[in-house]
Amino acid sequence: MARAHERPVYAYRRVAEQDATRVAYHPVVIVGAGPVGLAAALDCAVHGLPHVLLEAEDTVCEGSKAICFAKRSLEIFDRLGCGERLVNKGIVWNLGRVFFGERQIYAFNLAPEAGYQRPAFINLQQYYLEEYLIERLYELGSTDLRWRNTVTEVELCAEGVGLTVATPDGPYRMRCDYLIVADGARSPIRHLLGLSCRGQVFQDRFLIADVVMQADFPTERWFWFKPPFHSGQSALLHRQADNVWRIDFQLGWNVDPDEERRPERVMARIKAMLGEQIRFDLDWVSVYTFQCRRMERFQHAGRVFFVGDAAHQVSPFGARGANGGIQDVDNLIWKLALVVAGKAPAALLESYDAERIPAADENILNSTRSTDFITPKSEASRAFRDATLMLAEHYPFARRLVNSGRLSVPAMLRGSPLNTPDTEAFDSALGPGAPCADAPIQTATGEDWLLRQLGNRFTGIYFAAAHGRVAARSVEIIRALAGGAVPVTVRVVGERSLGKGLDGCGILDVAGLVRRRYGGSPGTFYLIRPDQHVCARWRRLELEPVRHALHRAFGQTQRHSEQIA
């Protein structure tokens, strides 16, 4: 098979603690340098949280694997300083088409309305994502990244987590306060700790192939039910960077995976799909089984946190795996940073389960429904599926029932214990628990985007009156929040003026979209978490309610109020 990409090899290095007589200590250790583990390390670096990243291999993944990255993930990568590079390399797509047999039954457009920096989705091979995240880590220079370091033992104790690590030079010991487990769906560490994933393994297999070809197919997602080139099954076609195309074929359960991976067999399937006239090279092949499972808890013994596929697995249609894992670390790392710094109690970490388990359950529910529709398990369900597809060609109500993969959406942390519920009516859906919406703005230094003004810290959005006027009392409160033990950086939104006396914190709502998307009548105030989720909002800015909401967002009781006032 031809190779569209040459995997880099990263050098193993011996570290000083391999020769030390005492066990070295680290605040945070991350295991696994896939997309989720690398994102965790980047987030630690951005927050100034000392950490070590251990990876058993010395290169990036083979094959494209996760390819579809959603707008929310791109916004998170923007916060980590590498979103632009991913978008520039990736393939932006918005349109999807669904076929039944030879006929297109409908198309859908995922493009968000105008006024967002990032597209709905890009397609980018996982190996490029990993390479770019590694390069960003090296650029920041604060990650102790250790290749060919394999964790072989995990010991939990009152003082932290003890690890035994195997290397080419032999084993060594290390200790950490917190362990982040990002070692994939098979998770050796999960097995070392005797923990399990529970859920459903679907009795169906899919062949996945990366094909290099020059073709004039549009940059769209094409999904076929019962295509003429693959009778009775389903297929999917996606474009990726460098003229690499992802093709998935449903195989059924009673097949030999090794036989189906043989290049000549794969090539025959692809030729039946594309036609004999299209020249292509086979780049990578794999066979996978749908699974929808999760651990009972993602936090273990107070110090071990499972993220990504190590914590939960979904079938690939819907792009909910990697995107969900990236949201895991987006949720976790700012909390760890506050706890390790002594600015928040360890109880804050309990909100990781409270927020990410419902998000994982939503992904599993949607993935299970997609899998059931794509691979019916009885003649009755297949008849219902096919009837729905026939109706969908002519009737919009039936299109809502067609499920070729409900695509990834941001988690809405509605029931979070860190939220402060609304006490007044808002005409915006961006309530407590919602991720912030982007919008074009202008600052004193030029054009920008709202989300670039938020993140990595607690931030406030205050909506000024006409012409940017801010009452003297509000200016006093904004300055008090900025000067607290845990500062809140407030951005003042105006329509025509940047405001005065607020030290350059004003932003212009150049298209009126900030005010519209946030329901920002004059005096409205939003309190935003470091992961760009809303934790509280009010129609009038008052100091004490904001302080109380901060206490809640820190997982603190009222007796801690003076610590962050």
If you had to describe this structure to a student in words, what would you say it looks like?
The protein is α/β, with parallel strands linked by helices and 565 residues long. The protein folds into 3 domains: 230 residues, FAD/NAD(P)-binding domain (3-Layer(bba) Sandwich); 93 residues, 2-Layer Sandwich (D-Amino Acid Oxidase, Chain A, domain 2); 125 residues, Glutaredoxin. It has 15 helices and 26 strands. The strands form 5 sheets. Strands 1, 2, 8, 9, 10, 11, 17 and 18 form an 8-stranded mixed beta sheet that branches. Strands 6-5-13-14-15-12-16-19 form an 8-stranded mixed beta sheet. Strands 24-23-22-25-26 form a 5-stranded mixed beta sheet, covered by helices on one side. Strand 25 and strand 26 form a beta hairpin. The longest helix has 24 residues. The C terminus is likely disordered.
